[in-house]
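Running this now, will post back.
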Amino acid sequence: MRRVILSLMSSREPLTGTLDATDARLLLELVANPRATGVELAARLGLSRNTVQARLARWEANRVLASFERRVDPRALGYPLAAFVAVVVDQHQLDTVVGELAEIAEVTEVCGMTGPTDLTVRVVAQDADDLYRIAGHILKIPGVERTNMALIMRSLVGPRTSPLLDRLVGANDDVGAIGATPGPTADL
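Update: finished.
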């Protein structure tokens, strides 16, 4: 069985722990049925309730699952426009810039980047005038040298992990195949 070491892209600290094929099966079931109870999940997957509860608790402790907040669509809150803002900053002021960006309600995500820009900022807006106001607010932050904005016209492939979970489940099926990397099995 292959094991995957996790790292959290949105944090400076890596996740502690690994996911195995049983974790992936359980997560896929949660993707398909997010309101399922632990008992329902255990029955559907042929696992004990204690195994399901222990894994859910471990994921919560290790920050495997993102916050529920990520499921709220900003469009439902009156923010139909979204854009990515590429930001170049004075490196000496990076932490201050990120802190200021976090104070802007319409900023939904900030990622540190390699390449010609330092940050990619995802913003939402009510309309074009609101987007202009937000862009101006970002440019006024001390340490921001320049920005470049790209309006999101349509989300074609949304945030997803199911294909990765499917691959992890499939990797379990490949144990013993040429090139497969078997690993220890999980106790839970």
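The beta strands are 4-5, 18-19, 81-89, 107-112, 119-125, 144-151. More later if anyone needs it.
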